[in-house]
Give the backbone structure.
Amino acid sequence: MGIFDGIERGLERAVNGAFARTFRSGVQPVEISAAIKRQLDIGAVIVDRDRVITPNRFIVKVSQGDYQKLQSLGETLERELRQVAVKYASKQGYTTLGQIDVQITPDERLRTGVLEIEPESVEGHISWGAALNIDGTNHELKQGTNVIGRGSDVDVRISDNGASRKHLEIDWNGSEAIARDLGSTNGSKVNGQRFAEAKLTPETVITVGQTHMKFVLLPQRQQQFHRKAGSNTNQTVQLPVSDADTFWRDL
């Protein structure tokens, strides 16, 4: 299966559908995932027979042009790349100091088709925030109660005639989210099923009228970073310029 070995088919479909029509040259998402895997292998250090530690945070630097193209998937791409890294580390038996994170940033020094991976070891856990993704825009949720509806005095306002002024609420405590319908006229759905109260997991879709809202978690990235002493933390990769349709067809 080549560079897609170990990656869920869902990622392949998402990346293929979103990017095969966009790129004619430059950095491809599958090439980023392959570079992250290489950095997991390169950075792995044997502590003892049953413990191999590897970096857990990867800063992916690309040209401004490549960055703008990659943003067509927004937070979804970074989230999928994190899942790829987690699964690969688990498959290889690697241990990390904290949760794995991937962040894509633009770098004006780089030209189109070049990416640079900066691996870091981050102690502790990533702080996560919650949001509702509506039509590609993330509406962050505060800790506590968040009211969603058509009224002007709500936390997340939706323009939908099928929504009540105060339609539902989401309680977010920093680690768990509970959604409750507030006795709305038309009701609410979670993943297509009506509900009165439901626990939300990442990628859960809430439907109000004709509006679909995806519950997502966003990394806050406020940790202190500790690079491994004596290691080469940057890897610059020159990617070939190729026709995107040919690239995807050969996978």
Residues 75-92 form the longest helix (18 residues).
